[in-house]
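4.2 Preliminary Data

To establish feasibility before requesting continued support, the project team ran the inverse folding procedure on a target of 199 residues. The structure was first converted into the token representation described in Section 3, and no sequence information of any kind was made available to the design step. The complete token record follows.
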């Protein structure tokens, strides 16, 4: 830590107060998976469904965050780690603010995702593995990135010449190459309902 002589200033409204006002818990839904697996697509649909049910939500999406907060970071292992660390800290603030926070980052390294889990309280981090075969992601190639990676125009692309470490104990696995988008959305919502997050 570079900063010294800093003292936490407590507020008089707590996370629990905010959750009570909102009428639901706050939590991070951490979508992880290969590029093109469907993290953004799924988070947008899940958010829409939650919003319709009166739940306060916010999405932190990889590309959007790299436009602003993290525009100084690249894709080296070190920068990916710092990217995820900052997102983790932002997500933690949003949970403190009482919001159901959905994040859509490849977040390829187990250690980095684990770091975020440790930042948050128990039951405040739901790891959702958006599972899809590399072949199918490459076939979809919604941003044309796999094509560029195969052509050598992008170096260190996850799944091609950079690793993706599968979650070992995720709270949820959605298989977007086997189930429809609607089925995946239902699976996530059902998990939240059954585990008491929505009341
Ligand atoms: N069952 C499904 N679930 C989710 N997405 C699907 C499904 N079937 C097809 N798709 C398509 O797969 C693509 C997924 O792209 P999306 O941008 O959501 O991926 P991503 O995981 O956010 O990738 P990136 O890490 O590059 O941002 C979309 O074009 C979506 O329409
Ligand atoms: Mg995305």
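Position-by-position output of the design step:
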């Amino acid at each position: 830590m570079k900063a010294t002589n800093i003292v936490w200033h407590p507020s008089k409204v707590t996370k629990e107060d905010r959750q009570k006002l909102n009428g639901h818990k706050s939590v991070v839904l951490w979508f992880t998976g290969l590029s093109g697996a469907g993290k953004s697509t799924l988070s947008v649909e899940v958010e829409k469904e939650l919003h319709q049910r009166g739940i306060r939500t916010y999405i932190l999406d990889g590309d959007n965050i790299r436009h602003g907060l993290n525009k100084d970071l690249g894709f080296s292992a070190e920068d990916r780690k710092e990217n995820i660390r900052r997102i983790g800290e932002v997500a933690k603030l949003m949970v403190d603010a009482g919001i159901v926070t959905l994040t859509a980052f490849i977040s390829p390294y187990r250690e980095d995702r684990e770091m975020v889990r440790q930042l948050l309280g128990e039951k405040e981090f739901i790891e959702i593995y958006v599972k899809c075969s590399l072949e199918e992601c490459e076939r979809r190639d919604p941003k044309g990135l796999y094509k560029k990676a195969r052509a050598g125009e992008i170096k260190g692309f996850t799944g091609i010449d950079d690793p993706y470490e599968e979650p070992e104990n995720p709270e949820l696995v959605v298989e977007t190459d086997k189930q429809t988008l609607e089925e995946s959305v239902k699976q996530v919502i059902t998990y939240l309902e059954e585990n008491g997050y929505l009341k």
